[in-house]
Structure formats: C-alpha cells, structure tokens
User: Fold Two-component system response regulator from Parazoarcus communis.
Amino acid sequence: MVIPGEQPFYASIAGSQPDADVCRILVVDDDASLRRTLPLVLAREGRSFDECASIAEAIAALEHKHFDLILLDYRLPDATGLDLLDWLTSHEREEAVIVISGEDAIDAAIGALRGGADDYVRKPYHVAQLQRAVDSTLHKTTLERANRTMSQRLRASERLHRFLVESSPDMIFTLDPEGRFSYINPRVRQMLGYERAALMRRPFSTLVVAEDVDRINSLMFARGNTPGESFNIELRLRRNRETLVEGGSESATVSLTGIPMPGSGGRTSNGLYGVARDISERKRAEEIITFQAYHDQLTRLPNRVLFKDRLELAIAQAQRRTGALAVMFIDVDRFKLVNDTFGHAEGDALLRGIAARLSTTLRRGDTLARLGGDEFTVLLPDINHPEDAEIIARKILDALAPPFRLDHGDFRATVSIGISLFPRDGDTAEDLTRHADIAMYQVKRSGKNAFRFFDPELNTHYRERIALENDLRLALERSEFELYYQPQVSMKAARVVGMEALLRWNHPAHGRIGPATFIPVAEEMGLIGDISHWVLEEACAQLARWRADGFEDLRMSLNLSPHDFSRTDIVDMVTECVSRNQLPPAQVELEITESMMMQDTAGVATKVKAMREAGLSVAIDDFGTGYSALAYLQKFPVSTLKIDRSFVRDLDGPSTNPIISAITGIARGFGLHLIAEGVEHAEQAETLRILGCDVMQGYLFARPGTAAQATGWLEAVPQPDLLRRPA
Assistant:
C-alpha cells in the first residue's frame, strides 16, 4: 500500500543502488597511468571501474550513473576535488569519496573531510594502504546503506500502520493501567460524536452505559488477565448528546475486543489495547428479524410460535404452584364476507381494529396472539375459577358490540369463543389449544357470537369426525360406495316407471352408512365432486344395462349436491356421460333442492337451462318445504316436482291437504311431472291418486335395494303389491 502523499521507501533504495550485486567505482584523476593502475590493484569480484580525467567528465558521468565509491584526485586540470564534493552535497548524492592528494598541507585534508569525503590518502601511498582505505570505506558504505534501508522501512511501516489505525472503520484505543484513554483514533467522532482530545486521560467507563459498567470492569481489571490474551464482549457506549441528531439513539452497541498490554517483565498488564466495532445496525436488524419471527406483521401481536412458548411456560408455572389457567380460541364470524365484499385492505383494517379492542379487555400478564387469518388466541394465566374466564369472554363480546368504521361503511363484527381450562381440559399446550378450538367450532354451529367451555363429549365427536374423514378419503379407492335403487311406480300403469339412485357407503368397520351422515362431510372436505362423478357414471351404466335388458322406457333419477353446480363443467360432465352410455337424455333426471333454486348460487339457473336444452330432465326435490314461488318455476325450466314426504306423512284425506292440492295444481298449470315421496300406506296412495298424483315412491312399494333386487322388481308381474317389502 502506498500512503497518499508519500514516496515508497523502496523507490529511494532503487534509485541509489540500481544493481546491488555490482560495486561501481569511479576513478577521477588526470594521470592516465594511475587511472589504468588503480583498477588493477583494487580489483575484486563484483567490482567495476569507470574513469574520468577532469571534474567536468566526472559530473557528466554522475549525471547518468550512480556509483558506490569515487577515488578523487585533489588537484585536477579544471577544478579541485572540493568542487566535486560540493556538487555531490548540493545534489544529495550518497556516493562515498576517498580523496587522493599529494598536498602536504593539513588544510587540504581538513577541507576534504569537511566537504564530505570519507577518507583522505596522501601521495605517495602504499598499495596496501589504499586497498585498506577502499575496503573500509565500502564496508562502512554497506552498513550505512543497510541502516538507511532499515530506517526507511521502519518509517514506511509506521506510516502504514498509522494510516490503517487512523482510517479504521472501528474505534481503536489504548488505556493506561488505570483504565484511562492514552490513545484513540478519529473514528470515535463518527461513532459517538466526541472529539479525541476531549476523551484523552478520561476513564473508559465514562463512555459505558451504566448497566454494562460492571461487566466491562470485571474483564478489564481482572487479576487473572494475561497480556496478549484477548476477551470479547458486547456493550453499549454513550453517544455525545450535544451532537446527537434528532431521533437518534443515545447509545451505540459495540463488539469490543480487548487485549491486555504487557508491562515490565512481560507478565503484568500495562493497560489495554481495544478495538470497538459498531454493531448497532446489525443488532437492530437482528431485533427486527426476531420480532418478525415471533409476531404477526399485520397486528403486531405474538404469533403462533410465541403464543405456544408462553403457554408452555405458563403451564410449567401453574404445575409448580398447583394453579390453573385458561386458553381462549377466538374466530371472527363472517369475516370472509368483508374480504369478498370490500377487499382485503378493508379486511386487514378490520382485523387491526378487532385486535385493538381485544387487547383492551385483557389483564396485565395475559397474552393475545393472532394465529393467522381471522383466528386469535388468548392465554389467561392465574385463573382461580372458570367464572374468571367467563367474565373476560363477556367483556370481549361487549367490546366488539359497537360497529367498526370502515371506508365503505360501518360493520358489526362478532366472534365465536371456545375456552379450555388447565388442568381440567389438558396439560399440554397442544391439547388446550385444540380443545378450545373444538369448543369454538361448536359455538359456530350453534349460532355464533357467543362463548362456550370445552366439553369432553365434543372431543369424542371430533375424534369420530376425523376418523370418518380419513376413511372417506379412501372410500372411492377401496370401492366401498354402492348405489341402491328405489322404484317410482305409476299407479295408473301399475308398473315401475323409474328408479331413484341412492348412495350408500359400505364401511369396513361400521357397516352400511347412509348419505345423511357422510355427504355433508364430503362437501366440507371438497370430495363431493369426485363422489358425484362416480354416482353419475354408475347410475348411467346401470340404466344402460336395464335398457339392454328391454326396459327401454325406464327413467333414472339421481341427486346432485349444490356444490356440484359450482363446477363450470357440470353440464358437459353430465351430457358426456349420458352420450357415452347411449342414453336418451330425457330418461336421466337430475334432482336439485328447492333451497338451491332459491339461492341461485353460481348461476344455477343458467346451468339448469343448459341441461334442459340438452334434453335432460330436472326435478325439484322436496318441493314445498321452502319458500316456493311461481317466479322461480318460470326462471328454472324444470320438468318434475317431487312432493316432500313431510306432506305425505300427515295425509288424512283430500279435503284436509290444501298444500298438496296446490302443488298438484301448480304441476298441471306448468305442465310438469309430479312424484310423491315417502308413501308408506295404501290410504296415502289412494288420496294422492284422487288429488291427481300418479307416480309415487316409498316403503309401500319397496325399500331401497341393490341393483339385483331392482332388476327383480322390473321383471315382476305389474302389480304394485308385488313390489312391497317388509319394513
């Protein structure tokens, strides 16, 4: 490294000694014989000689070349040797000079030596004398050059190290044995805002934040400190308040490396050498990362990880004190409505508002956390009675009662709260949170905007539900589903005119399970689409087999889930299956519920219309149980109405059944087919016939049976009584 403004020490060395292996000697004498003789008597390995006859020639040679030694005659034709010595001095040359003179006066020798000559040899001289003078002078020159080189290296090294210390991004300092600053580099001004001069001789401890003083003093003045053995510590140093910018931190966090300096004898400390690196930004980044790892970014509340950590700690403390605690699981009701209607920005604003109100209801020491989405949890340590948790739950419901003001208007938020208690409902964080979650879902099912404590019976129910879900996922793969069929009988023709396909699940452990048990679960799990597709394929294939057996006018009725109509390809799926099995579309009847017709979700009317245009039959199941309106029958081009079993069950006579009379009148008015469900007695069948309903199904004719049983009914003598099976 070259220090700015400085010449490298090796540059001067290179200039003074271009070739260190050759010793160059310049002979300056006007005696030609002497100039020829001297190189012979002074010859040594590694020496080379040049010669000049005058001062002018010598100066010309010196301007182009450096020499190690000049043998200079005192008297020359154009000047004296003293003139050459003056030239050498004025040009700061380093050549050694031995003056050879025949002058007897002592003044000549004194003048030469004062002029810079290294030696003075008087003529006549002995050859050995001259050789000794040359050897001695060259040896001296070598030593001086080595000394100059070492000095230059030391100065350069000092300049380099001073530059490194003074320019270091770290604060570098030394302390005397009493812990006072004896040196400090300029970095202290940028780091702490102090001038170096103001800190000299001041104790280092005056810069240390009070809470860290004892720690650093214990390291700096420990008796066992060995010189050269370093220590490392993180501590905070005070910033100069007079130079502190507005909003700046009053302290800087540094990583300090201290090395005790050796004193006399090398075994005792003679102060301290220290390097302090500012790690304030790194510490802030670590704090941010840590906060983000354990807190929710939207509400700034603890997240799932931190909540679990605090809950586990609270459980351990409660076990030691034989105390109790409560866990609340809070879910915001209808939150999806806000996101879907007003957007996620409004949803985020609502969550922040709810978090703020929840915080106001809690005690000091309680923990409110956001698990994600619209779910919050609360840890209530030191609960003496369940009533304490109940009081807080009521405070939460009351706090959320006022509406939240959003950009698009006010919104009244409610929550469902599940509560579990330690140790009654579990002794681990997982069990308490899970049981509170189960209790919360029970509140959801019971109407929302309330709270409930966990009941062990709920856990049994949820365990059974989970087991059912797991088995249901494998039911299709294991071919555990089966279609049963219930005949639809025409009283006028006294024969079976249709079959309704009914799904059953042959569970390997629980036997046959009806659709009312597992269909809602399949809809929640998102499996209903695959199940409905299987039902469609199986029912169409069975109808194709019956048609091949000669029952060509038989109609197949099957149910679709409301979730099926959210599929964009539902119409194509049905028509493709019907076409592939070579079935007349009108003989495949799809049943939809009256409630689905009323809601018209996902464009149900459009899809029903497409099915009717494709020639398929569409029936409204359980007609009359909802808020039926003639306008919906005009909007939905259905082909069949099915009278619900609840009306048939209470049937006593034609005069006492205005609803059925109205339904039959609607069917006639719109030109729709009519089917009555749940017919169990001959009197009900007769009354329905009188009221104008010809096609019926129910236990009076047959319970749902397998495909083989249904084939037997089709092949039976056309009398309804022959289809009847024991109840």
